[in-house]
Amino acid sequence: MKDRKKIFEIRHLKKYYSVSQKQWLKAVDDVSFDIYEGETLGIVGESGCGKTTCGKTCLGMIEKSGGEVLFMGQDVHSMKRREHFEFTKKVQMIFQDPYASLDPHQKVYNIIAEGIRIHKMAKGKKEEEKMVSELLEMVGLNAEHASRNVHEFSGGQRQRIGIARALSVNPEFLFCDEPISALDVSIQAQIINLLMKLQKERKLTMLFIAHDLSVVKHISDRVGVMYLGRMVELTMADQLYINPKHPYTQALLSAIPIADPDECKRKERIMLDGDVPSPINLPLGCRFASRCSKCMEICKSIEPNMIEVEQGHFVACHLYK
Ligand SMILES: Nc1ncnc2c1ncn2[C@@H]1O[C@H](COP(=O)(O)OP(=O)(O)OP(=O)(O)O)[C@@H](O)[C@H]1O
Ligand SMILES: [Mg+2]
């Protein structure tokens, strides 16, 4: 990985929301990682742990409170107008809920052609029409769908339209924020397979967010685990599943259902008890301490930093000092 080009470099990124005059909600609190060219980086964690905020702050869609985000060496949060315009072409997003992110009264054609027009990608009307047709076919719809309104389509089809819209400007990077969690289980795999196919064909770099470790395992090269605004573990996807280091990752993995009954018997389920602290009133020390079965004295007073415990395997836990 290390010799690969870095598309994003995220350093000590923070996003705090003000909730009262004196109180801050630390949605993202000192998170650092890189995203390498051509990889899919998955991020998992429970609801509210800061995944969306982290992704959107990386894309400059949300102001940061501290730290730095570099896109190919350029500071995302201080781009000039022209640079930002170029950035919005190179970096695209697929949203969680295609019912909310696509205007139901719009024609599919206009939704997909909008980016093509803004970025002057087509030489004329004919070429624009050809591009829209090709994009629709690429995502498993067909050219005739262009003349219909969004509300005529199912959730899975709408997400395909969302993908065609994102790819219409030929981006290099795709941020997928739980792109299947609003869809029927029966069509989730189709959308995942489509994204994987497109990623390969178009050599895209992806940031893929999910609740569920079994979804990211399938699609990611590396996986980061977030807990209450922090990244607690980051490594190659296979390593994370074979050799999870952080007690939180271990607990998350133990909760994945296993189809094989023999393996299921061997696997011990780690229950997470204790309360999740509020992101407004964070405890001293490790944020996971109150739920951790391996909590030590030091964990209650000193917050662990991310360290590289094996090559490319990062973990923030006092067990590994
Ligand atoms: N605009 C906002 N103002 C105040 N607090 C916010 C705002 N947006 C998010 N938060 C809070 O920041 C924290 C992180 O939210 P975020 O949406 O990033 O989590 P998430 O991991 O994406 O959750 P989910 O899995 O439910 O999508 C949560 O505590 C949330 O309530
Ligand atoms: Mg989210």
Features:
12 strands; 321 residues; binds magnesium ion; 8-stranded mixed beta sheet; Rossmann fold; alpha/beta; binds adenosine-5'-triphosphate; globular; 32% helix; 4-stranded antiparallel beta sheet
Write structural notes for this entry.
The chain has helices at residues 51-58, 81-90, 98-101, 108-118, 125-138, 155-167, 185-201, 213-219, 237-242, 247-254, 261-266; strands at 6-18, 24-36, 40-44, 66-71, 74-75, 91-94, 173-177, 205-210, 222-227, 230-236, 307-310, 313-315. The protein is built from 11 helices and 12 strands. The relative contact order is 0.14. The protein has one domain (6-315): Rossmann fold, CATH 3.40.50.300. With 321 residues, it is of the alpha/beta class. It is globular and about 70 Å long. The longest helix has 17 residues, at 185-201. The chain starts with 5 loop residues before the first strand and ends in a 6-residue tail after the last strand. The protein binds adenosine-5'-triphosphate (ATP) and magnesium ion. Magnesium ion is lined by residues 51-52, 177.
By secondary-structure content and strand pairing, the structural class works out as: alpha/beta
**What is the approximate shape?**
globular
N-to-C terminal Cα separation, in Å?
A: 24 Å
The succession of helices and strands, N to C, reads EEEHEEHEHHHHEHEHEEHHHEE
Unreliable runs? none
Strand order of the largest sheet: 6-7-8-3-9-10-12-11
Bound molecules: adenosine-5'-triphosphate, magnesium ion
Q: Helix segment count?
A: 11
Q: Helicity, in percent?
A: 25-40%
* Rg calc: 21 Å
Mean pLDDT: 93
CATH topology: Rossmann fold
